[in-house]
Amino acid sequence: MKPSFGSFVLRGSTVIIGCLGLAWGIFVLPQSELADEFRDIEDRLLRFETFRPASFARTLASQNSQELSACDTHSQRALLLTEMSLAETALRSGTVKEFDQHAKSLESRATRVLSCQPRQSFVWLLVFQLEVLKGVLSEHSFDLLAMSYETSPNEAWISIRRNLVAMPLVLVAPEPTREKILNEFQLLIRYRFLNVAARAYLGAPEAARSLLQTRIEQLDDSQQKAFSDALQKFRA
Fold this sequence. Notes:
Blueprint: H1 5-46, H2 53-61, H3 63-66, H4 73-93, H5 96-116, H6 121-133, H7 139-151, H8 156-166, H9 175-190, H10 194-203, H11 209-217, H12 221-235
Helix pairs in contact: 1-4, 2-4, 4-5, 4-6, 5-6, 6-7, 6-8, 8-9, 8-10, 9-10, 9-11, 10-12
């Protein structure tokens, strides 16, 4: 019995779908692996792990990093954190030209990311941190920090870095933002991010310690003791 026209169509469709599926897999698999790689970098940097500057430079210069979509959230955050680390290294070593290059690159990348996803709280924070590194503390600078609080006031992984960046500037921050910094510090203790809170406390200006102490005294006895113990370990 000869195959019907319908069976030929069915077989042909199956072959076409199979080929399309294979092509899709060939295209998507490398992209997926690349996304996983950048997610791993992001996770490690958010845990404050350190990398060799040369490794960071290779990552930024790679063709893969140049082709990433501005809307690829995790990969773009990984690249922003990578370049921020290189900018900080350049600033510490006094290589001004290199720092300026990284600063311009950071500003450009952050603008692209925020144009795609304007509620990226962590990116607003990184742009504020860059202003701090550049020695720029204006009303606009603190507007950037305020945007970070507005778009994500209570995410712990953002609060951890944000409080460390903002605390040294708590006394010069506008009053509404100052309150947010102090409240965030208190919440870090309450939710047992004690090492981060201790580092933030030690990074605060001496004149701000009384403000921080007031927030500490509003906590229950067990929370106060846990923070005191963490603080002593850093001071030891």
